[in-house]
Amino acid sequence: MAGVAIDEDIGSANGEMSLERRLKALISETGPIPVSTWMTLCLHDPHEGYYATDPGLGRDFITAPETSQAFGELIGLWCVEEWRAMGAPDPFILCELGPGRGTLMADALRAASVAPDFLSAMQLVLIEASPTLQSKQTDALVGHRPVFVESLEDVPAGPALILGNEFLDCLPARQFVQTESGWQERVIGIDETGGFVFGLAAADIPAEAHAAPGQEVDLQPGLDTLVAALAARQSPMCALFIDYGETDAAPGDTVRAYRDNAQVDPLSRPGWCDITVDVDFGRLARLAGEAGLDVAGPVMQGPFLGALGIQARMHQLIQANRDQASAIHRAIAQLVEPDKMGARFKVIGLSSPGLPPMTGLG
Ligand code: SAH
Predict the structure, then answer these.
(1) Cβ neighbours for 168, distance < 8 A, ≥ 6 positions apart
(2) Can you give the pTM of this predicted structure?
(3) Ligand 1 atom having least distance to the Cα of 64
């Protein structure tokens, strides 16, 4: 199994049949499948899954590290600071979940070169489900000898800093709908014309789901797995996750698919589009607290980057590249302005108990 929380057996997929035909065969055999199963197979099927074969970073969506180098650089400096706050352990693990093209980490480690002791103590560990992206990450981080592991549980023991930008939104969600006759789960079946169609089915509903009639709740089982793996670490650990979602309301009906920067039908052409869900930061914070971790934030991305000094970094970049001043300015605005990524994206810190407060999350 690749990465955290892929709970379906994608390894048994038969590559001779198209993903669409295999999904239809699965549904004919077992009945309609939960949205989480659909997401897992469409994203990670080894033969046709979106991330496994044709991840559209830059084509279907643009992330913060791909928007401005300042994003990764500030996170790199943040890592150095948190490492010192941990007592500068040597060796320690720097781990990233879902590193995409490796841009965040490359920018972070370039900025962290102000602290050679940090770089020489670091062992870089990456968790990446997509073989295509793994090879891009290897190229981008060639001087840092990254080691790939399959899941957080496989990260070697020892003090660790853990990062994930736009990773949590990929973790498949189950969707529960409160109907007049009670809770049901959104599933995907086959209609009379042979096409995929959403429907509702009876299901075991987690006790924590609540919503008014007509409302729904998206629940990512992967958040539970993630928190359990973080809480199981025996050495000091500090994790930072950045993603889109709400802090005070459980997301409902937020599963969305994208292709070529446009929203598309998630049931159209399995494996062809990215499928994501809003992250329930309130739930993540609650799970982490219950597991005994310290929780910092969530705070909005704009103020977080402001506290890390993004304005000063922007001025430096403009000084050094005067002919690109307006593009640099525009990119930073994209990251911090409340009507762009600054408010919709949240930042949360989860750490083993007793470490000093994390920078930027107070
Ligand atoms: N962090 C990058 C990329 C975000 S896209 C950036 O900010 O640009 C999501 C990333 O998570 C991709 O690299 C994708 O392949 C990876 N991913 C998604 N689900 C995963 C899983 N279950 N395990 C490991 N990696 C996963």
Answers:
(1) 220, 222, 223, 226, 241, 243, 245, 279, 284
(2) 0.95
(3) 7
